[in-house]
Each structure stands twice: as C-alpha cells, then as structure tokens.
Amino acid sequence: MSRHNEWILILDYGSQFTQLIARRLREFNIYCEIHPYNVDLKEVSKPVPKGIILAGSPKSVNDTDAPHLQTEIKEWGVPILGVCYGLQLLAHTEIPGSVEKAEKREFGRAHLIIDEEGGLLKDVDDQAVVWMSHGDHIKELPSSYKIIAHTNNASVAAVRHTEEQIYGVQFHPEVAHTACGKQILHNFAFDICGLSGDWTASSFIDEQIEAIREKVGNDKVLCALSGGVDSTVVATIIHKAIGDQLECVFVDNGLLRKGEFNEVLDLYIKDLKLPVRGVDASELFLSRLTGVSDPEKKRKIIGVSFIDVFEKEIGDDADFKYLAQGTLYPDVIESISFKGPSATIKSHHNVGGLPEKMKLDLIEPVRELFKDEVRDVGRELGIPEHFISRHPFPGPGLGIRVIGDLSKERLDLLRNADRIFIDELKDNGLYDEVWQALAVLLPVQSVGVMGDERTYEFTVALRAVTSIDGMTADWAHLPYEFLSHVSGRIINEVKGINRVVYDISSKPPATIEWE
Ligand code: XMP
After folding, report:
1. CA-435 nearest atom, ligand 1
2. What's domain 7-192's architecture?
3. Helix, strand, or coil here: 244?
4. CA distances in angstroms from 320 to 245, 315, 403, listed in the order given
5. Does the active-site annotation cover 84?
6. Catalytic site residue from 174, 247, 364, 368
7. pTM for this predicted structure
8. Which residues line ligand 1 (CB under 6 A)?
9. CATH of range 402-502; options 3.30.300.10, 3.40.50.2300, 3.20.20.190, 3.40.190.290
10. Best mutation site among 253, 305, 333, 346 for ligand 1, i.e. most ligand atoms within 8 A of its Cβ?
11. I need a surface site. Which of 49, 161, 370, 449 has the fewest CB within 10 A?
C-alpha cells in the first residue's frame, strides 16, 4: 500500500531491539519501516527515506557470515544513524579490521561523558545513563569521524562524521534503560533528518482511503471479519473508501467464544453499518477438526477451511479481485526479519499470502501498524470503545486453546469456563488492566471430590498477560481473591471441570497461547 512521504528506514541486522526503534519513532508521529539489511534497495527508495537507522545485531562484524552494509545507501545523501552493530559496521566498512573483540564484554548501564554538546546529543545531560550490550568495540575510529561522547569503559560511545550527516552510538537509545534515548532519537529524526512528525491516525486513514480507491477501481473486495479489532478497522476503512464494492463475511467456525457470533454480528450490522454476511460453517470446521491434536495441523485445517468458505461465498462472481485482511506489523516482522529472535515460532495463518487457487490479491491496510496504533485508528473511525478495547483473539480461536484432541464437547467446556473468566474480569474492572486473558482446556483428567462423590475430570488453565504489543508479555498479577472466586465459579458451574490452575509464565520463554 502507499507509503507516507516522510519516513525513516530502519535496517534490521537481527537485534531483538530493532522493533523498539520503530516504536519509539512512531511515538513521535514519525512513520518508519523495518527492512532486512539486504533488502532490494529499489523497494525502499520510493520515496527515498528522510533518514536511515542501521540497527543492532547479535553478530560480530568480523564473523564470516556477518550481515553487511549496502554502501549504495550512502549515495542517497540522507542522514544515517548507526546503533551498536550499525556503528561498528560504519567503521568496519571504512577500515576493515577497525572493530575487535573487547577484552571485557560490556553489558548494562554506563554513564555517558559528553565530549561535544548539541547535534545528536542536544539536551542530553553529562553522566546520562545509557544501556550497553556489546562484545566488540571500535579499536580504530576512521579519521573522518569525531568522538562526541565516551564512557569509562568505551572510548567510543557516540560519534559524528566530520563532513556528512552520519552518526553512531555504541549504546542502545531505543531501550527504556537509556533514559536519554528518546531525546537522541528525537534529535536525529527532527533536527538532523528534518522530519515534522505529521503521521497521525487521521493522516493514515486519508492516505489509505486514497490508496485503496486507486488500487481497487471498480472491482469488488471481500473482507473476512474475525470479530477482532484489526479486521473491523480494515473493513471500516475500506467501506469508507469504496462503499458497497466491499462485502464482508463473518464466519461462525465453531471456535468462537460463547455468544460471540451473534453479539459481534449485531455490532457490525447495527452500529458500524457494514455490508456483512454471517455464515454458519461450524459443522464444516468441526467435522474436519474433530480428533486433530497437532497445533500446526489445526491451524492449517482452519486456514484452508476459511478459504473454502470464502470461495463458496464468492461463487462465480468475477468482480471480486481482492481479499482484505487485518495483518499487523508484528506478524509481518515475524515473517521477514533477518535471522532474528523472531524466527517463525508459530505460523500466524493470516500472513504469507493466499493459496494460488483463490486468485485474489491481498489488501492489508494495517500491515504497517502495531496493535495500539490500530486501536487509535479505530477510535478515529468512530468504532465504539468497548469494541476497540477487546482483547486480541487468534484467528484459529478456541481451536488452539483446547490442547490436544479437538471435539465439540471439549470446546463447549472451554467456552463455558472462558465466559466466566472474561465476565468476571469485566465485572471486577480488571479486563482493561490486562492485554489478553484466556482459558485453556488441558487434556488432563485428575481426581477430585465433590460432595461425597469422587470426580475424574478436566483441568482448565487461566492465563492473563500484560503486554504492549504481544511480542513480549508478563503474566498478570491478578488478585488472589479474584482468582479464587473465578476458580470456585468454574468448578461449581462447569460440569466436567474439577481443577483450575493459573499460568505464571512470561513470554519469552513461554508464548501467550499454549499452542
Ligand atoms: P503467541 O502465542 O505467539 O501469541 O505469544 C501472540 C499473539 O498472537 C495471537 N496468535 C495468533 N493470531 N493466528 C492469529 O491470528 C494465530 O495462529 C495465532 N497464534 C497466536 C495470540 O492470541 C497473541 O495475541
């Protein structure tokens, strides 16, 4: 889709912090995109970015397979900021061998001693705390660079090129521990690159509407609504752009939460006035999924079944040329990132394109946005707040929350337990305190006692996490009294469950979903 005119290119060399750079810049209303270091430069030159950031890497520039700098980008004449590996790469490209293994790996907080004020370091205090994480250091700085700050351990902490707009920092300005990091990125983006910070939810909507109109022409678009915020925002933008050339389908796949299909369909039709068809395909999905236990198999079957339903809905209407999806930026990053920590862990079924046979092109207007940004766009579009603040819900739904063999009975058990948990979170004012809450049905039966009877029933795990974008998460410290009350209700009210546990794992190393 269209790219905002004023933007910053972030080149990814595999560091786990690369995304944080993007997030920090976007907080300043600056549009930026992350691309792998070896991206085809033609892809990122329209329009040419106003600045480039070379991000960090777990590699050493001296490794034989070290990711390199495409030096042609220097010819664009736009400011460059190298961060950690990015800085070392700038030095190494000019003088091979100028970077070497440090005697002592530097990790953690350090104090910046400023040698030249202003510029990149404008309004940064002497002795400001910065966060270091590197095993190599620059032994010999090319003479075209000048040191503008050092630390007790690192003679080169920040540099500038003496003639060109090229800068580098050895520390990580993007992490929260570097308190002056925001100021440094702000200085780079506004003062050095000359950006104005004009990228807002409303400018985003206007740009997308224009791009969608241009792309779609007189053709028709099918939008698969999932009941979540992302696809709803997508459908609303497209509806604004092309009116009833859009048709939406909301599928009951038998894997939705209790009561969800009718509640959400109502909102689509009555509140948002979207042209939507509700399709009950639960039997199709369940007949294909019953007895399947492997998570990736479940995802594949669900993905294929969705496509089958969409194809049936389109029939032989040849005007349908596009399928709209609510793909988000973290999904995109996970699938393009260079050998980073984001190597594919689970296949998120809404990324990666459609099977050839469907012959539809994808429209993904929010694929450059993080979840919180999609929510801001949704508010700007007038979608009701209670809908905007819904927790994320995975495309494969409860299918990946019944661990092991799927069956209608197990799904119903989970639906009932889940409903109690979510209702109680809402009633106790805790729903908006957590990023996502869910119940998981475990394929484990255990012994219990109810009245005078011995029971041998299933276990439900409750999970609630806090997070900013779902990429990392911590388990939510919900009050014991609350958990005790929910556990009591589930065991008393859901026949077939006699044990409730609470998941206290963070991501990483665990993930949010159990499958
Ligand atoms: P994990 O479990 O990977 O989840 O920590 C991160 C976020 O992604 C959601 N998720 C999915 N969403 N299709 C989706 O559309 C999927 O297959 C899928 N798997 C996980 C998950 O709910 C969480 O918000």
Report:
1. 24
2. 3-Layer(aba) Sandwich (3.40)
3. helix
4. 9, 10, 37
5. yes
6. 174
7. 0.81
8. 299, 346, 348-350, 392, 394-396, 436, 470, 507, 511-513
9. 3.30.300.10
10. 346
11. 449
